[in-house]
Amino acid sequence: MSDGQQSTLERATMTAIVAPRYGSSEVLRTEVVARPVPGEGEVVVRMRAAAVCRGDVHLLTGKPYAIRLGFGLRRPKDPVIGHDLAGDVVEVGAGVTEVACGDSVFGSVDAGAFAEYVRVPVERLTGIPAGLTVAEAAALPDGGMTALQGLRDVGGLRAGQRVLVNGASGGVGTSAVQIAKALGAEVTAVCSTRHVETVRALGADQVIDYTTADFTRDTDRYDVLLDLVGNRPLTAYRRVLAPKGVFVSSAGSPGGNWIGPVVWVAKVALTGLVVGQTMSPLLMRPRRADLEFLAELAAAGKLRPVIERRFPLAAAAEAVGHVAGGHAQGKTVIVV
């Protein structure tokens, strides 16, 4: 093979983390695959960092099994996993005017972020704000948009209200504490002992260590309760919710390998129909406008993702395994 042929081949291929079948992080492999080409309304981003989220774990394991109806019955339809990303635009598809080659961007994609290059719809990207590192930008989309939509859009959180975040130390929870403070709320955060000081440093007004206290037995009442864990019955959550308060669930009891939290989601929605309090499940939808809002908060110094660990792309399986363990603090980032 001539040098020119080799150079052409290198431009047409890339290194990616591939899941050839459903399973644990041990099934992940590093492979050379075809480099993506942008379609209309899409760009190709040269990856500089990606963050691992719980959705990556679900799509890797194929559990609950119900998700395989949309993502591949026997194996993943998109074998290159990964949602959250940050990097530089290197190719622009037809009709794209929002970004240009060379722009540094962050955002999310349905799959493909654990690679050297990824194809992304332009409406799911925005520019990395000044003051935010590439790793921090990659850590922002999933947790930030979930927290923002849960608090502002579903919870209707307003300045002066009281909010409780159950599960405040994870990727969504650490963002939720900061976003709630930026919205002018009084924040109570619930986490385990080892995370107390980190969560307090994010601006929480009160921090409850769930290993020593049960917040559902307190006399305090909250206007909005953002639940990211699903480790209490609905009756317990309602005890600490104000009479016209809003319960927002972005978690739920697992419900087994087949249907996952479907029963929990239905229970939350049905309960909301018969009580005075609002009971709402949350399904985050990626939106460019929300990414821009998060970027503004970050630029103003009001939001900064918590990154617990960084891994190189070659160690992506270890990074996914760390998140799958269920006790990671903040976000886990893969540096490409």
Protein architecture, described:
- There is one protein chain.
- With 336 residues, this protein is α/β, with parallel strands linked by helices.
- 31% of the residues lie in helices and 27% in strands.
- The chain contains 12 helices and 15 strands.
- The protein has helices at residues 3-12, 54-61, 68-71, 134-138, 141-154, 171-182, 196-201, 234-239, 256-259, 262-274, 288-299, 316-324; strands spanning 13-18, 29-34, 42-52, 84-92, 104-108, 117-121, 125-127, 162-166, 186-191, 206-209, 222-227, 241-249, 278-281, 307-312, 331-335.
- Strands 3, 4, 5, 6, 7, 14 and 15 form a 7-stranded mixed β-sheet that branches. Strands 10-9-8-11-12-13 form a 6-stranded parallel β-sheet. A two-stranded antiparallel ribbon has the order 1-2.
- α5 packs across α6.
- The longest helix is centred in the middle third of the chain and has 14 residues, at 141-154.
- 48% of the residues are buried.
- The model is unreliable at 1-7 (pLDDT under 50).
Shape: globular
Please state the structural category: alpha/beta
Helical content band: 25-40%
- Tally the helices: what do you get? 12
Q: Termini distance?
A: 28 Å
- Report the major sheet: 7 strands, mixed
Overall number of strands: 15
Q: Uncertain segments of ≥5 residues (pLDDT<50)?
A: 1-7
Q: Which band does the percent of strand residues land in? A: 25-35%
Order of helices and strands: HEEEHHEEEEHHEHEHEEHEHHEHEHE
Radius of gyration: 20 Å
Average pLDDT metric: 92
